[in-house]
Amino acid sequence: MLFNSIDFAIFLPVVAILYWTVFSKGGVKLRNAFLLVCSYFFYGMWDWRFLGLLIFSSTVDYVLGRLIGGTADGERTKRKFLLALSLVVNLGILGFFKYANFFIDSVEGLFTFFGTELSVSSMNIILPVGISFYTFQSLSYIIDVYKKEVEPAKDIVAFLTFISFFPQLVAGPIERASHLLPQFNDIKKFDYEKAREGITEVFIGLFKKMVIADRLAVYVDSVFQNAAEGGTAEIAGFPSVLGLIFFAFQLYIDFSAYSQIAIGTAKILGFNLSTNFRRPYLSRSFNNFWERWHISLSQWMRDYIFIPLGGSRHGRSRTVRNLLVVFAVSGLWHGASWNFVIWGIINALFVIVLDPLLSRLKVKGLPASMIVFAMWTFSLAFFRAEGFDAALSVIGSMGFGNIGRIADFGLGWNEMVFSLLLLTVLMSFEYVAEGMERKGNNILNVLVFSRSCVLRWGFYFVLVFSIILFGVYATNNDNSFIYFQF
C-alpha cells in the first residue's frame, strides 16, 4: 500500500478513528493488537506471501531476546550462541532474498574473467518489500539485548508491533528498541496539536513526493533509460548533467517525503519516530552530510559496524579501513549490485580524502556546501544507473553543450521552469529553517501553527489543492517510493 494512494487515504483515517475511539477504552494490549493487525494488513497489501516471513523472523527474535535476557552473567558462550543464531536467521533470510542472484552472477563473472565458462542459472527471487529495514531494526534489538542496553520485551504483541509498525515498516526510519518499543507500553491520550502536526507533515510529504519528486522522475528516467540503451549521443552535454542533478534532488525529496509521511502518520497515532533527514544539502563537509542523510541507517552503521570494528580509536590506517568497510556494507545494503558497492566506496573516499582537504584549504560556507553537493551528485551516477557501463555513459556524456535539448526528455520548457522554481523554493525554505533551528525555533511553528485560524487553514487548503492540481499522476510513471526497492 503506497502512502500516495487512494487506498492509504482511506486506510489511515479509518485506523486513526478506530484507534482513538473504539480501541481507546480497551487498554494498551488491545490497542497494540489492533495496530499489529493493521500493520500486517498494510504489509499484506503488497504480497501476502511475504507476511509469513515478517512474522517468522520477528517471532524468532522475540524468543531469542527472551532467552538471551534469561541467561546468567557467566553464560557468555550461551549468550554468544543465541546472538549468532539470530544473526544467521536474519542475515540468512536477507542474504537469500536479496543477494543470492548477486552472488551467483559475481561467481560466474569471476570464472569468466579467468577464462573459464561457468553457466549457472539465476533464481527467480522476488525481493520482499522492506526486508532490509525491518531486518536491521530487529537485529539492533537483539544486539542491544545482548549488550544489556535494553531489557528483552516480555509482551510479544508489543514486540511484533514494534517490528511491523506500518508507518515506518517499509522504508524506515530504522527505529531503536530503546526509543520506540517503550511507546507501545504507554497509555496514550489524544493530543489535538500533535495530531494536527502529524496531518500537516503527511500533506507536506505528499506535496514533496507528488509535486516535486515525481515530476523530476519523468526527466531522470528518460535520461538514464537512454544511457542504459547506449544512447549517449542523445544525452551528451548538459542533458546528462541536469539528469544527474535532478536525480540528486529526486532521491532526497522522495525519501525524505516518505520519512516525513511516516513521522506524521505516527504522530496522528500518538507515537514519535526518529528524524531521518536534517537538510543534508546544506552540509559543509561529507562527514556532516552523513550525519544529516538517512540518519537512522548512518547511526546503525556507526553503532553496530564502525565502532565494533574499532572506530577511530586505533590510528589513521585502521580508521580508513573501518570507514571503507562501513561504506561498502552501506552500499551493498542499498542493492545487490557492484554499482552500489562502488557508490559506497566513493563516498568513503570523500570522507577520508576530501574532508581533510577542505579543512586544510579552509573551504567553508557556501563553497563547501557546493563542493559536497557536486561530489555527492557525481557519485549518484553509480547509484541510479542500470549497470556499470550505463553509469560510465552518464559520466562520460557530461558537459555544457546541447542546452537547447534539455526539454526533449519528458519535461517541456514550462514544466522545466516550474521544476526549477520548486527546487529554488524548497532550498530557500530549508536555508531559512536551518537558521531558525539554530535559534531554537521550528519553521512550521513560526509560519503556520502560531498563526491565526484563517492563515493556518489557508495554508492547509493551498497545500492540499497544490497536490491535487500539480501532482504527477501519469499512468506510465512509477510513483512508488525509490527506497521501496531496498
From TrEMBL:
<keyword id="KW-1003">Cell membrane</keyword>
<feature type="transmembrane region" description="Helical">
    <location>
        <begin position="413"/>
        <end position="433"/>
    </location>
</feature>
<feature type="transmembrane region" description="Helical">
    <location>
        <begin position="390"/>
        <end position="407"/>
    </location>
</feature>
<feature type="transmembrane region" description="Helical">
    <location>
        <begin position="81"/>
        <end position="100"/>
    </location>
</feature>
<feature type="transmembrane region" description="Helical">
    <location>
        <begin position="120"/>
        <end position="143"/>
    </location>
</feature>
<dbReference type="Pfam" id="PF03062">
    <property type="entry name" value="MBOAT"/>
</dbReference>
<protein>
    <submittedName>
        <fullName>MBOAT family protein</fullName>
    </submittedName>
</protein>
<comment type="similarity">
    <text>Belongs to the membrane-bound acyltransferase family.</text>
</comment>
<dbReference type="InterPro" id="IPR051085">
    <property type="entry name" value="MB_O-acyltransferase"/>
</dbReference>
<feature type="transmembrane region" description="Helical">
    <location>
        <begin position="454"/>
        <end position="474"/>
    </location>
</feature>
<keyword id="KW-0812">Transmembrane</keyword>
<dbReference type="GO" id="GO:0005886">
    <property type="term" value="C:plasma membrane"/>
</dbReference>
<dbReference type="InterPro" id="IPR004299">
    <property type="entry name" value="MBOAT_fam"/>
</dbReference>
<dbReference type="GO" id="GO:0042121">
    <property type="term" value="P:alginic acid biosynthetic process"/>
</dbReference>
<dbReference type="GO" id="GO:0016746">
    <property type="term" value="F:acyltransferase activity"/>
</dbReference>
<feature type="transmembrane region" description="Helical">
    <location>
        <begin position="155"/>
        <end position="174"/>
    </location>
</feature>
<keyword id="KW-1133">Transmembrane helix</keyword>
<feature type="transmembrane region" description="Helical">
    <location>
        <begin position="366"/>
        <end position="383"/>
    </location>
</feature>
<feature type="transmembrane region" description="Helical">
    <location>
        <begin position="6"/>
        <end position="23"/>
    </location>
</feature>
<feature type="transmembrane region" description="Helical">
    <location>
        <begin position="235"/>
        <end position="253"/>
    </location>
</feature>
<keyword id="KW-0472">Membrane</keyword>
<keyword id="KW-0808">Transferase</keyword>
<keyword id="KW-0012">Acyltransferase</keyword>
<feature type="transmembrane region" description="Helical">
    <location>
        <begin position="52"/>
        <end position="69"/>
    </location>
</feature>
<dbReference type="InterPro" id="IPR028362">
    <property type="entry name" value="AlgI"/>
</dbReference>
<dbReference type="InterPro" id="IPR024194">
    <property type="entry name" value="Ac/AlaTfrase_AlgI/DltB"/>
</dbReference>
<feature type="transmembrane region" description="Helical">
    <location>
        <begin position="323"/>
        <end position="346"/>
    </location>
</feature>
